[in-house]
TrEMBL record:
Protein name, entry field: Reverse transcriptase domain-containing protein
Superkingdom, natural source: Eukaryota
Species name: Diabrotica balteata (Banded cucumber beetle)
Upper classification of the organism: Eukaryota, Metazoa, Ecdysozoa, Arthropoda, Hexapoda
Amino acid sequence: MKNHRSPGDDGLVIEGIKAGGEIILKSVSELFNKCLHEGTIPKDWNNAVRVLLQKKGDNTKLENYRPISLLTYMYKLFTEILTKRLTPLLDMAQMTGRICIPYGTFASICIP
């Protein structure tokens, strides 16, 4: 993930996770594995901060703004890992004509 991006409502930035070293990475890994095994994520990961970014033009006109949602980095990191691990399985399922993922797949994608 890129550095120098806006944090979500928890205030955590990716630089903090990266700087935490092995201790933080182990804790994050354990949390993600727990999420995978239980099939849930922490409720605060569902919160987003919505802000308006000004586009070009008159800053007094609402049409010159666009909304964005700032999500927590823990949620972004978790979904990025899930995407990277599920994409090959989905690609393989498409090639074989299967449209579902076999039972027990989440246990096989847990973070070591």
